[in-house]
Structure formats: structure tokens, C-alpha cells
UniProtKB/TrEMBL annotation:
It comes from Cephus cinctus (Wheat stem sawfly). It catalyses: 4 Fe(II)-[cytochrome c] + O2 + 8 H(+)(in) = 4 Fe(III)-[cytochrome c] + 2 H2O + 4 H(+)(out). This is Cytochrome c oxidase subunit I. Keywords: Membrane, Mitochondrion, Translocase, Transmembrane, Transmembrane helix. The gene is COI. One of its GO terms (molecular function) is cytochrome-c oxidase activity. The chain crosses the membrane at residues 12-37. It comes from the Eukaryota.
Length: 78
């Protein structure tokens, strides 16, 4: 390179803080990529089901008409 950036020695502490911050960011990105990779290749069972039948709209096969539920009905499981 033709130009070098030269900072005064008074900014050395800020340079060290910036370098440490960049290393923390690099390690967190690497850990995030590892977690994504590990979650994609593992064959774990689902613990929490997002399709819980806790309201009547989940029992219908088609979307309900607009304004069909002014208030939620009570569900009773026999």
C-alpha cells in the first residue's frame, strides 16, 4: 500500500479497545454459524409445538370470515 495510517500514541488504548471489540464480534459470529450448522444437522425431536389448539380458530380448516369472532368462545375438552 502506498499510504499507511499512523495514529498518535495517545490513541493506543482506543485501538486496543477496538481490536478487542472486533475479536468479540468475530467469535460471536463464528459461534452463531456453529449453532446454525449444528441445529441443521442434528435430528432432535421438537419440544414445543407452535400449533397448540388453544382457540377455536385452529380447529377450522379454512380461514374464518372477517369479523366472525367478536369475542373468543370457551373451549371445553371432553
Amino acid at each position: 500500500p502506498r499510504r499507511y495510517s499512523d495514529y498518535p500514541d495517545a490513541f493506543m488504548s482506543w485501538n486496543i479497545i477496538s481490536s478487542i471489540g472486533s475479536l468479540i464480534s468475530l467469535m460471536s459470529i463464528m459461534m452463531f454459524i456453529f449453532i446454525l450448522w449444528e441445529s441443521l444437522i442434528s435430528n432432535r425431536q421438537i419440544i414445543f409445538n407452535e400449533n397448540m389448539i388453544s382457540s377455536i380458530e385452529w380447529l377450522q380448516k379454512f380461514p374464518p370470515m372477517e369479523h366472525s369472532y367478536t369475542e373468543l368462545p370457551i373451549l371445553i375438552k371432553f
